[in-house]
């Protein structure tokens, strides 16, 4: 009779097939998503010409938590990263279970929201009922997610390159067709000595923060990354740096190309920027927006399914969700559950304001994750050889900034 341990060793496992380039593309895909394609407008309304500072400040606020995720991902390269970290650091299965469900909830809500956004863009070109498009998009992206991690992340990577290409196109269009792009740079810091400027900047920081959430999804594909102790920290920091550069450049181009009032009022800011700067049709940017939103669906589905798989593998959820298919080497049952929940939310509910709800969930998760690392450092839990390690003040800074943003957002 085969022992339970032997049977477990014989079960198929996730495949370590992602190197640094694909890991970074995954991080860029889940971070950029569809956020920057719409967030420029409200950020401009709040901060005006100072909006680039809002994105820089948001990146600085995000940096300590990113460093905490880098160390924890290096220490504990497992799926269901956040739940794993909380369980190891705070020694609580209950808190790990709660945090894991928060991550899954955020991923599913995000996937559902982006699915409806994607369907709205597709509807511009395809005269089919919106709900039919939603069903088709969710099922197609679910099939890609179930196909295999290398295949799904590679496809997501290609879509991420297209998505980034759209942002770079805006940047190059601005550089070529907006003659005073650099000459007006001093306007970005004019009036920074006044209270009104900083009120607008700090108000827009919350919106900018939403655009940076997502890099933590890298923690949930840790079991499918080659040399995770080395690759994950690099991927997290490269993602944060590249996203910050892209956001700041694109926001400045948008502010110069289109008057603030017009930019703040539009629902498709980058399409308006492209049209105003070139005089051409915004159809290309609209098509890229479709790719950006579809890409977001894939990466959120991957993240949600891997968290369910990781929690099941740790005994926090039914074992069925922790099974890996021998052919695809993906957790099909966990993926099917994520796809089903995404479909129900996307079709049944008129989802509004869920970007802010997801960001609040992310801030709560950041608080717990930083607290877990603080406890590890207090308990002097040794990091494995070769692991990335940050000073003790880093998770403290991450906890304080996440808690401060959460409290300020709830007080609005």
Q: Give the DSSP E fraction (strand runs of 2 or more residues).
A: under 5%
* Overall outline: globular
CATH fold-level label:
Amino acid/polyamine transporter I
CATH superfamily: Amino acid/polyamine transporter I
Query: How many beta-strand runs?
Result: 0
The SSE string, one letter per element, is HHHHHHHHHHHHHHHH
- By CATH reckoning, the class would read Mainly Alpha
Quaternary structure classification: single chain
Mean pLDDT: 79
Low-confidence stretches: 1-9
Tell me the number of helical segments per DSSP (H or I, 4 or more residues long): 16
Structure classification: mainly alpha
Ends distance: 62 Å
Query: What would you report as the Rg, rounded to the nearest angstrom?
Result: 21 Å
- Helical content stands at over 70%
Total domain units: 1
| Main sheet properties | none
Named CATH architecture: Up-down Bundle
């Amino acid at each position: 009779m085969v022992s339970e341990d032997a049977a477990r060793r014989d079960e198929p496992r996730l495949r370590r097939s992602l190197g640094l380039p694909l890991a970074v593309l995954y991080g860029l895909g889940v971070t950029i998503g569809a956020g920057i394609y719409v967030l420029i407008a409200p950020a401009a309304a709040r901060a005006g010409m100072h909006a680039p500072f809002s994105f820089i400040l948001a990146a600085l606020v995000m940096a300590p938590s990113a460093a905490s995720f880098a160390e924890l991902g290096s220490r504990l390269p497992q799926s269901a990263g956040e739940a794993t970290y909380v369980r190891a650091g705070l020694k609580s299965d209950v808190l790990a279970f709660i945090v894991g469900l928060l991550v899954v909830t955020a991923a599913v809500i995000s996937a559902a929201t982006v699915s409806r956004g994607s369907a709205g863009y597709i509807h511009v070109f395809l005269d089919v009922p919106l709900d039919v498009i939603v069903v088709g998009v969710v099922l197609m992206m679910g099939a890609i997610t179930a196909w295999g991690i290398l295949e799904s992340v590679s496809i997501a990577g290609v879509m991420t390159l297209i998505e980034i290409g759209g942002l770079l196109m805006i940047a190059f269009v601005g550089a070529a067709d907006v003659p005073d792009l650099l000459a007006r740079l001093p306007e970005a810091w004019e009036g920074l000595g006044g209270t009104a400027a900083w009120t607008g900047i700090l108000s827009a920081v919350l919106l900018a923060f939403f655009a940076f959430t997502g890099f933590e999804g890298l923690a949930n594909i840790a079991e499918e990354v080659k040399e995770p102790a080395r690759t994950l920290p690099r991927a997290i920091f490269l993602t944060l740096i590249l996203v910050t550069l892209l956001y700041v450049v694109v926001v400045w181009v948008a502010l110069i190309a289109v008057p603030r009032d017009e930019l703040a009022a539009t629902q498709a800011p980058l399409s308006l920027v492209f049209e105003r700067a070139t005089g051409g049709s915004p159809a290309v940017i609209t098509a890229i927006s479709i790719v950006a939103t579809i890409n977001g669906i894939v990466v959120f589905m991957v993240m949600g399914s891997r968290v369910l798989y990781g929690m099941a593998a740790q005994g926090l959820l039914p074992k069925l969700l922790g099974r890996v298919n021998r052919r695809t080497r993906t957790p099909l049952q966990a993926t099917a559950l994520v796809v089903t929940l995404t479909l129900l939310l996307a079709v049944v509910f008129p989802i509004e304001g869920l970007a802010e709800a997801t960001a609040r969930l992310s801030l709560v998760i950041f608080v717990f994750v930083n607290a877990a690392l603080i406890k590890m450092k207090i308990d002097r839990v040794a990091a494995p050889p070769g692991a990335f390690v940050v000073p003790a003040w880093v998770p403290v800074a991450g906890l304080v900034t996440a808690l401060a943003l959460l409290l300020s957002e709830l007080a609005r």
